[in-house]
Amino acid sequence: MNTREPVIQEPDAFEPEATRREAGATESSRANRGWWDRNADDYQVEHGTFLGDDRFVWGPEGLDEVEAELLGPPEDLKGRDVLEIGAGAAQCARWLAAQGARPVALDLSHRQLQHAVRIGGSFPLVCADAGALPFADGSFDLVCSAYGALPFVADPRLVLRDVHRVLRPGGRLVFSVTHPIRWAFPDEPGPEGLTVSASYFDRTPYVEQGDDGRAVYVEHHRTLGDRVRDVVACGFRLVDLVEPEWPAWNTSEWGGWSPLRGNLIPGTAVFVCERD
Predict the structure, then answer these.
(1) What's the whole-model pTM score?
(2) What is the distance between the terminal CA atoms of the chain, rounded to a whole angstrom?
(3) Which of 160, 185, 194, 244 has the largest CB neighbor count within 10 A?
(4) Where are the beta strands (DSSP E) in 86-124?
Protein backbone atom coordinates (compact mmCIF):
# COMPACT_ATOMS: atom_id res chain seq x y z
CA MET A 1 0.00 0.00 0.00
CA ASN A 2 1.19 3.48 -0.85
CA THR A 3 0.92 5.47 2.39
CA ARG A 4 2.98 8.45 1.33
CA GLU A 5 1.36 11.81 0.70
CA PRO A 6 1.43 12.64 -3.01
CA VAL A 7 2.31 16.06 -4.30
CA ILE A 8 -0.95 17.39 -5.72
CA GLN A 9 -1.24 19.65 -8.76
CA GLU A 10 -4.23 21.75 -9.68
CA PRO A 11 -6.47 19.82 -12.12
CA ASP A 12 -7.29 21.11 -15.57
CA ALA A 13 -10.43 23.24 -15.75
CA PHE A 14 -11.49 22.45 -19.31
CA GLU A 15 -13.23 19.34 -20.63
CA PRO A 16 -11.64 18.13 -23.87
CA GLU A 17 -13.67 16.93 -26.83
CA ALA A 18 -13.41 13.19 -27.58
CA THR A 19 -13.19 12.25 -31.24
CA ARG A 20 -11.66 9.79 -33.69
CA ARG A 21 -9.20 11.32 -36.14
CA GLU A 22 -5.70 10.87 -37.47
CA ALA A 23 -2.82 11.86 -35.17
CA GLY A 24 0.82 11.49 -36.13
CA ALA A 25 3.89 10.64 -34.10
CA THR A 26 4.81 14.19 -33.09
CA GLU A 27 1.29 15.20 -32.09
CA SER A 28 0.76 11.95 -30.17
CA SER A 29 4.02 12.29 -28.25
CA ARG A 30 3.44 15.93 -27.37
CA ALA A 31 -0.16 15.35 -26.31
CA ASN A 32 0.56 12.31 -24.18
CA ARG A 33 3.58 13.83 -22.46
CA GLY A 34 1.38 16.75 -21.44
CA TRP A 35 -1.54 14.55 -20.41
CA TRP A 36 0.54 12.31 -18.15
CA ASP A 37 2.33 15.30 -16.63
CA ARG A 38 -1.02 16.89 -15.80
CA ASN A 39 -2.72 13.71 -14.60
CA ALA A 40 0.12 11.84 -12.88
CA ASP A 41 -0.95 12.97 -9.41
CA ASP A 42 -4.57 11.90 -9.83
CA TYR A 43 -3.47 8.61 -11.41
CA GLN A 44 -1.22 7.73 -8.48
CA VAL A 45 -3.88 8.71 -5.95
CA GLU A 46 -6.56 6.66 -7.71
CA HIS A 47 -4.49 3.58 -8.57
CA GLY A 48 -1.52 3.71 -6.21
CA THR A 49 -3.02 1.31 -3.67
CA PHE A 50 -3.83 -1.29 -6.36
CA LEU A 51 -0.38 -0.95 -7.97
CA GLY A 52 1.49 -0.79 -4.67
CA ASP A 53 4.96 0.66 -4.31
CA ASP A 54 6.86 -2.43 -5.45
CA ARG A 55 4.50 -4.83 -7.19
CA PHE A 56 4.77 -5.93 -10.82
CA VAL A 57 1.19 -5.98 -12.12
CA TRP A 58 0.56 -6.51 -15.84
CA GLY A 59 -2.88 -4.89 -15.98
CA PRO A 60 -6.19 -4.08 -14.28
CA GLU A 61 -7.01 -7.78 -13.88
CA GLY A 62 -4.19 -7.94 -11.33
CA LEU A 63 -2.00 -10.52 -13.07
CA ASP A 64 1.17 -10.40 -10.96
CA GLU A 65 4.63 -11.25 -12.26
CA VAL A 66 5.24 -13.21 -9.04
CA GLU A 67 2.81 -15.84 -10.32
CA ALA A 68 2.99 -15.23 -14.07
CA GLU A 69 6.81 -15.41 -14.43
CA LEU A 70 6.58 -13.99 -17.96
CA LEU A 71 10.07 -12.54 -17.60
CA GLY A 72 11.30 -15.87 -16.28
CA PRO A 73 11.64 -17.36 -12.79
CA PRO A 74 12.33 -14.62 -10.19
CA GLU A 75 15.57 -16.29 -9.13
CA ASP A 76 16.86 -15.94 -12.71
CA LEU A 77 16.39 -12.15 -12.65
CA LYS A 78 19.34 -11.57 -10.35
CA GLY A 79 22.08 -9.63 -12.11
CA ARG A 80 19.99 -9.03 -15.25
CA ASP A 81 19.91 -5.62 -16.90
CA VAL A 82 16.24 -4.72 -17.36
CA LEU A 83 14.62 -1.72 -19.05
CA GLU A 84 11.06 -0.80 -18.05
CA ILE A 85 9.32 1.38 -20.65
CA GLY A 86 6.42 3.56 -19.57
CA ALA A 87 7.41 3.00 -15.96
CA GLY A 88 5.17 5.60 -14.33
CA ALA A 89 6.14 5.64 -10.64
CA ALA A 90 8.46 2.66 -11.33
CA GLN A 91 6.55 0.12 -9.25
CA CYS A 92 7.62 -2.70 -11.57
CA ALA A 93 11.26 -1.57 -11.63
CA ARG A 94 11.22 -1.46 -7.83
CA TRP A 95 10.02 -5.09 -7.73
CA LEU A 96 12.73 -6.08 -10.21
CA ALA A 97 15.38 -4.42 -8.06
CA ALA A 98 14.15 -6.43 -5.07
CA GLN A 99 14.80 -9.64 -7.07
CA GLY A 100 18.41 -8.56 -7.61
CA ALA A 101 17.96 -7.26 -11.16
CA ARG A 102 19.50 -3.99 -12.38
CA PRO A 103 16.46 -2.05 -13.69
CA VAL A 104 16.27 1.25 -15.52
CA ALA A 105 12.86 2.97 -15.40
CA LEU A 106 11.97 5.09 -18.44
CA ASP A 107 8.91 7.27 -18.93
CA LEU A 108 7.85 10.09 -21.23
CA SER A 109 6.35 11.99 -18.29
CA HIS A 110 8.62 13.92 -15.94
CA ARG A 111 5.78 14.17 -13.42
CA GLN A 112 5.32 10.40 -13.30
CA LEU A 113 9.02 10.00 -12.60
CA GLN A 114 8.73 12.55 -9.79
CA HIS A 115 6.41 10.07 -8.12
CA ALA A 116 9.07 7.40 -8.59
CA VAL A 117 11.50 9.71 -6.77
CA ARG A 118 8.91 10.28 -4.03
CA ILE A 119 8.50 6.55 -3.39
CA GLY A 120 12.24 5.93 -3.62
CA GLY A 121 14.69 3.49 -5.15
CA SER A 122 18.35 3.23 -6.08
CA PHE A 123 17.94 2.53 -9.82
CA PRO A 124 18.20 5.06 -12.68
CA LEU A 125 15.16 7.03 -13.86
CA VAL A 126 15.18 8.27 -17.45
CA CYS A 127 12.74 10.74 -19.03
CA ALA A 128 12.69 9.95 -22.76
CA ASP A 129 10.52 8.93 -25.69
CA ALA A 130 10.21 5.17 -26.19
CA GLY A 131 10.79 5.61 -29.91
CA ALA A 132 14.28 7.06 -29.34
CA LEU A 133 15.80 5.07 -26.50
CA PRO A 134 18.96 6.78 -25.20
CA PHE A 135 20.93 3.55 -24.72
CA ALA A 136 23.69 1.77 -26.57
CA ASP A 137 23.07 -1.34 -28.67
CA GLY A 138 22.80 -4.52 -26.61
CA SER A 139 22.43 -2.78 -23.24
CA PHE A 140 19.73 -5.00 -21.73
CA ASP A 141 18.83 -8.63 -21.11
CA LEU A 142 15.13 -7.90 -20.69
CA VAL A 143 12.70 -5.14 -21.66
CA CYS A 144 9.23 -4.90 -20.13
CA SER A 145 6.28 -2.56 -20.39
CA ALA A 146 3.01 -2.82 -18.48
CA TYR A 147 0.58 -0.63 -20.46
CA GLY A 148 3.44 1.74 -21.21
CA ALA A 149 4.18 3.57 -24.47
CA LEU A 150 2.88 1.14 -27.08
CA PRO A 151 -0.84 2.04 -26.82
CA PHE A 152 0.07 5.72 -27.18
CA VAL A 153 2.48 5.81 -30.13
CA ALA A 154 1.50 6.32 -33.76
CA ASP A 155 4.14 3.89 -35.03
CA PRO A 156 4.67 0.94 -32.65
CA ARG A 157 7.30 -0.51 -34.97
CA LEU A 158 9.51 2.50 -34.24
CA VAL A 159 9.47 1.50 -30.57
CA LEU A 160 9.85 -2.23 -31.25
CA ARG A 161 12.81 -1.71 -33.57
CA ASP A 162 14.58 0.38 -30.95
CA VAL A 163 13.82 -2.20 -28.26
CA HIS A 164 15.30 -4.86 -30.54
CA ARG A 165 18.41 -2.70 -30.88
CA VAL A 166 19.00 -2.26 -27.14
CA LEU A 167 18.31 -5.93 -26.33
CA ARG A 168 21.10 -8.46 -26.32
CA PRO A 169 20.75 -11.59 -28.51
CA GLY A 170 18.47 -14.04 -26.74
CA GLY A 171 16.87 -11.21 -24.78
CA ARG A 172 13.18 -11.07 -23.97
CA LEU A 173 10.56 -8.36 -24.45
CA VAL A 174 7.27 -8.62 -22.58
CA PHE A 175 4.62 -5.91 -22.96
CA SER A 176 0.95 -5.55 -22.11
CA VAL A 177 -1.63 -3.38 -23.84
CA THR A 178 -5.38 -2.92 -23.88
CA HIS A 179 -6.81 -6.01 -25.54
CA PRO A 180 -7.69 -4.95 -29.10
CA ILE A 181 -11.26 -6.35 -28.86
CA ARG A 182 -12.09 -3.68 -26.29
CA TRP A 183 -11.97 -1.02 -28.99
CA ALA A 184 -15.23 -2.36 -30.40
CA PHE A 185 -17.05 -1.71 -27.10
CA PRO A 186 -17.84 1.50 -25.20
CA ASP A 187 -15.31 2.28 -22.48
CA GLU A 188 -17.84 1.63 -19.72
CA PRO A 189 -17.58 -0.91 -16.87
CA GLY A 190 -21.33 -1.63 -16.62
CA PRO A 191 -23.90 -3.33 -18.89
CA GLU A 192 -23.76 -0.40 -21.34
CA GLY A 193 -20.19 -1.47 -22.10
CA LEU A 194 -21.21 -4.91 -23.35
CA THR A 195 -22.68 -3.97 -26.72
CA VAL A 196 -20.47 -3.57 -29.78
CA SER A 197 -20.59 0.08 -30.85
CA ALA A 198 -17.67 0.44 -33.28
CA SER A 199 -15.80 -1.56 -35.86
CA TYR A 200 -12.94 -3.61 -34.47
CA PHE A 201 -11.15 -2.93 -37.75
CA ASP A 202 -11.36 0.86 -37.50
CA ARG A 203 -7.80 1.89 -36.66
CA THR A 204 -8.55 5.62 -36.46
CA PRO A 205 -6.91 6.94 -33.26
CA TYR A 206 -8.95 8.03 -30.26
CA VAL A 207 -8.16 11.71 -29.62
CA GLU A 208 -9.15 14.15 -26.92
CA GLN A 209 -8.64 17.74 -28.07
CA GLY A 210 -9.09 21.28 -26.83
CA ASP A 211 -11.18 24.06 -28.31
CA ASP A 212 -8.29 24.92 -30.62
CA GLY A 213 -8.26 21.40 -32.09
CA ARG A 214 -4.91 20.52 -30.53
CA ALA A 215 -4.75 16.99 -29.18
CA VAL A 216 -4.31 16.67 -25.42
CA TYR A 217 -4.51 12.85 -25.33
CA VAL A 218 -4.08 10.23 -28.06
CA GLU A 219 -4.46 6.46 -28.03
CA HIS A 220 -3.84 4.24 -31.04
CA HIS A 221 -5.68 1.04 -31.93
CA ARG A 222 -4.03 -2.02 -33.45
CA THR A 223 -5.85 -5.29 -34.09
CA LEU A 224 -4.48 -8.48 -32.59
CA GLY A 225 -3.11 -9.42 -36.00
CA ASP A 226 -1.46 -6.01 -36.32
CA ARG A 227 0.32 -6.50 -33.00
CA VAL A 228 1.61 -9.93 -34.01
CA ARG A 229 2.82 -8.65 -37.38
CA ASP A 230 4.53 -5.67 -35.71
CA VAL A 231 6.42 -7.96 -33.33
CA VAL A 232 7.56 -10.33 -36.07
CA ALA A 233 8.47 -7.56 -38.54
CA CYS A 234 10.80 -6.02 -35.95
CA GLY A 235 12.84 -9.17 -35.49
CA PHE A 236 11.13 -10.84 -32.54
CA ARG A 237 9.75 -14.32 -32.11
CA LEU A 238 6.38 -14.41 -30.36
CA VAL A 239 6.54 -17.18 -27.77
CA ASP A 240 3.31 -16.52 -25.87
CA LEU A 241 0.21 -14.34 -25.96
CA VAL A 242 -1.47 -14.11 -22.56
CA GLU A 243 -5.08 -12.95 -22.15
CA PRO A 244 -5.55 -12.73 -18.37
CA GLU A 245 -8.91 -13.84 -17.02
CA TRP A 246 -10.58 -11.71 -14.38
CA PRO A 247 -9.92 -13.27 -10.95
CA ALA A 248 -12.64 -13.68 -8.35
CA TRP A 249 -10.70 -11.69 -5.75
CA ASN A 250 -10.60 -8.53 -7.87
CA THR A 251 -13.70 -6.44 -7.25
CA SER A 252 -12.18 -3.20 -8.56
CA GLU A 253 -13.31 -1.12 -11.51
CA TRP A 254 -10.67 0.73 -13.53
CA GLY A 255 -12.10 2.81 -16.37
CA GLY A 256 -13.82 0.31 -18.64
CA TRP A 257 -12.31 -2.68 -16.85
CA SER A 258 -14.58 -4.37 -14.33
CA PRO A 259 -15.56 -7.81 -12.98
CA LEU A 260 -18.69 -7.75 -15.15
CA ARG A 261 -16.82 -7.15 -18.39
CA GLY A 262 -13.74 -9.09 -17.36
CA ASN A 263 -15.72 -12.29 -16.98
CA LEU A 264 -17.06 -11.98 -20.54
CA ILE A 265 -14.37 -10.38 -22.72
CA PRO A 266 -10.61 -9.99 -22.35
CA GLY A 267 -9.33 -6.59 -21.28
CA THR A 268 -5.57 -7.07 -21.58
CA ALA A 269 -3.17 -8.75 -23.99
CA VAL A 270 0.37 -9.58 -22.89
CA PHE A 271 2.92 -10.32 -25.62
CA VAL A 272 5.95 -12.43 -24.70
CA CYS A 273 8.67 -12.04 -27.33
CA GLU A 274 12.28 -13.13 -27.75
CA ARG A 275 15.10 -11.63 -29.77
CA ASP A 276 17.02 -14.29 -31.69
Answers:
(1) 0.93
(2) 39
(3) 160
(4) 102-107
